[in-house]
Structures are given as C-alpha cells and as structure tokens.
C-alpha cells in the first residue's frame, strides 16, 4: 500500500511540475525603428546644475568623476596603449564597416596627425605688426567633454531598446570650443 501511495504521489508531483512550467511561446521579432542614429552626449558639465538651482539633478550632462575616469581609461588610455582597437572616424561614412587603425600606428596618429593649433599673437620684430602664430598642441584625455554614440533603435517585446554600436570621444578645446572627433571604438571592445 505504501508503494502505491508513494507512486501515486510521485505521479502527481510530476504532473504538477509539468503543468506549472510555461509552454514555449513564439518569440517576438524586433521591430527596427532605425538601424543608425548618431548623437552627442555631454559628459562633463562645468557648471553643475543642482536641483535647488534649476530643478535638475547633479547628473544632468555630468558623469561622476570616478565613473568618468573608468570610462576614459577604456576609450582613451587603452586605445593609445593598443589594448583596445580604434577605428578611423569618417564624418561622411555610412558606418557599415569601420576602418581599423593599426594598433602600432595609433600613437603616431596622435603625434603626427591629431592635434589642434593654438593661436598666439606676437609683434613682428621687423614690421612691428601683430601677427598670429599657430602652435600645434596635442589633444589630451582631459579634453574629452562629450561622447558621440552610433546606435540602433528598436522595439522588442513592446519595449523601446537601444543597441550601442560604437562610441567616439569628442575632444573640446577650451580656447576655441572646437570639436575634434578622431576615432570610433566598437562598443564590444569597451570592456574592463
């Protein structure tokens, strides 16, 4: 009798377990809103706006310093060291493919090609006229004030989703507020 009761209970347990598991439903396809959208996001706000000032929190266009340091290490230091692959930024590109910058050449790009000109004025000794002198100045990590994102937007399971494809640091010079975008980093390469 005990064996029959035990077997009956085992059968009930199996049936109960099977009936409680969800049946597989058809996965919904994602509905693409746009395959590519590109936009800039300020990450450093020199005038941190607080809630008391303008009803905005401290994170309005601002990343906490420790988080920012980790991010810039990933998209600047690791790129220059060759640990993370960088791709050429093409302002007119279709971004189906990215042209990889050989890791061995990346420092050379910074030294030879990627710099800004700082203009100073001096008096010409011969004529006495004021002349502009352009001095090449290399771009530095602390000049990254914004990020440019390349993303895909879509709906999946009735949720709006974004898939970041690549990120490009935007160097902003204090003197002229010029924007310099030099390279993309594939988001898959931005890791710890």
Average pLDDT over all residues:
78
Task: Determine the fraction of residues in helical runs and give it as a percent range.
Answer: 10-25%
**Which segments are poorly predicted (pLDDT under 50) over 5 or more consecutive residues?**
5-11, 16-23
Task: Please give the count of helices.
Answer: 4
SSE ordering: HEHHEHEEEEEE
Please describe the topology of this protein:
Layout lengths: L1 H19 L10 E12 L8 H4 L10 H16 L6 E2 L17 H8 L1 E9 L6 E9 L5 E13 L2 E14 L6 E3 L1 E4 L6
Antiparallel strand pairs: 1-5, 2-8, 3-4, 5-6, 6-7, 6-8
Write structural notes for this entry.
- 24% of the residues lie in helices and 34% in strands.
- The protein is built from 4 helices and 8 strands.
- About 8% of the residues have low confidence.
- It has one domain.
- It is of the alpha+beta class.
- Strand 3 and strand 4 form a beta hairpin.
- Strands 1, 2, 5, 6, 7 and 8 form a 6-stranded antiparallel sheet that branches. The chain has a two-stranded antiparallel ribbon with strand order 3-4.
- The longest helix has 19 residues.
